[in-house]
Amino acid sequence: MSIRSISVGAKIPSTIVYENSPGNQVNLAEEVAEGKSIIIGVPGAFSPACSSSHVPGFIKRLRGFNEKGFQKFFVVAVNDAFVTKAWGDALLGSTVAGAQIKFLADPSGAFTKDLDLLFDATKFFGNERSRRYALIVEDGTVTKTFVEPDNTSVVVSDSANVLEEA
After folding, report:
1. What CATH number should be reported for the domain holding residue 158?
2. Where would I find the Thioredoxin domain in this sequence (predicted)?
3. Residue 92: φ, ψ to 5°
4. What is the domain range of residue 70?
């Protein structure tokens, strides 16, 4: 994690992201203002590691996180709201996890930029994208960060590691 990236003790920025459509604005600072939440950042919806291991790991371990008091989960991608909705629908299907996990679009990367977690992915994705990360947030304040040092691996931010450290 770079020194400038969001750190323990920081408040979540109130930058707007979107759920399901461009008309449904979400202020993550308000969403995580009370209780224990996890924000999961991914380089791209439908990308292999994001779809096969990173996000599915959190879905698989949802009960374990719930037992530790986590009730809200947010998956943020620098994609448009229609893409993140379709991706969330594909990953969640009819699971009960859908009531707790929201898939959010950060189409311009503004929220991710405010976290200082953007990286130049133009060679692969055509624009800047989010580093892979997980943030534990309690009452609006970041209490733990799990940011992949190489931007895209699933080691530090792996759900098993996050659950163990939570």
Report:
1. 3.40.30.10
2. 6-166
3. -85, -35
4. 16-165
pTM of the model: 0.92
Structure tokens belonging to residue 21: 């459509």
Catalytic residue set: 50
55 in a domain, yes or no? yes
Tens of pLDDT, residues 106-164 = 999 999 999 999 988 777 776 788 899 999 999 999 999 999 998 888 999 999 999 99
Give a yes or no: residue 102 inside a domain: yes
Reduced to 3 states, what is the DSSP secondary structure of residue 60?
A: helix
Calculated CA dihedral for residues 92, 113, 14, 98, nearest 10 degrees: 0
Place of tokens 């947030």: 137
Please say whether the beta carbons of 87 and 77 come within 8 A.
yes
In the chain, the amino acid numbered 145 is T
Place of tokens 């374990």: 64
Task: Give me the count of residues in the chain.
Answer: 166
In a domain, 66, yes or no: yes
Q: Which helix (H) or strand (E) holds 133?
A: strand 133-138
Domain count, the chain: 1
